[in-house]
TrEMBL record:
Pfam families assigned: PadR (PF03551)
Name of protein: PadR family transcriptional regulator
Annotated ranges, domain Transcription regulator PadR N-terminal: 7-81
Organism name: Marispirochaeta aestuarii
Length: 178
């Protein structure tokens, strides 16, 4: 769903070809989405088959492969609004693969438990530090929309919560409560 929403939303702004979509998604959404390059072309083909997107033109620059320029249809605009409203109203439950490892914590020696949780804490602190610098860099780019600040803030709150939780788990291990 997020790939469709991203493509339709970007095509709503202006006609684009596949590589432009990929570049925009990587440059401005890459920190908070996991849209794979291959999925963009698959989605474009599917959206075209469904009549939500149409090929506007095929361009070819000298010595380069041809590229198809896509634009949104009226049905595509309706689908975009529907997906957008759905994304705002749907509550996604988040599952953490790490919780399975935590469930089997007792299978590791105490030394390993402490080593791994301290490593996770260190990595999470490094992520939080990186976020601050990266946000500053991204927000200095005039092409980045103001809403990016809210997206960075969302991520920062989650990373801080993870950090606090990891400290709690470390304390539990150190006190033999887990």
């Amino acid at each position: 769903m997020s790939t469709r929403l991203a493509i339709l939303g970007l095509l709503k702004e202006r006609p684009l070809y596949g590589y432009e979509l990929k570049s925009i998604i990587e440059q401005f959404m890459g920190d908070w989405t996991s849209i794979a390059f291959g999925s963009i072309y698959f989605a474009l083909r599917k959206l075209t088959e469904e009549g939500l997107v149409r090929e506007l033109a095929v361009e070819q620059e000298k010595g380069r492969p041809s590229r198809r320029v896509y634009e949104l249809t009226d049905d595509g605009k309706d689908e975009f609004r529907s997906l957008l409203r759905d994304a705002w109203t749907r509550e996604d439950r988040v599952y953490y693969p790490f919780d399975i490892a935590l469930f089997f914590l007792k299978e590791l020696s105490r030394e390993e438990q402490l080593k791994f949780i301290r490593k996770r804490l260190e990595d999470t602190r490094r992520t939080l530090d990186y976020l601050g610098g990266h946000e500053k860099e991204m927000r200095s780019d005039p092409r980045v929309p103001p809403v990016a600040g809210a997206i960075f803030s969302h991520t920062r709150h989650h990373v801080r919560a993870e950090l606090a939780w990891l400290e709690e788990v470390l304390a539990g291990i150190e006190l033999d409560r887990l």
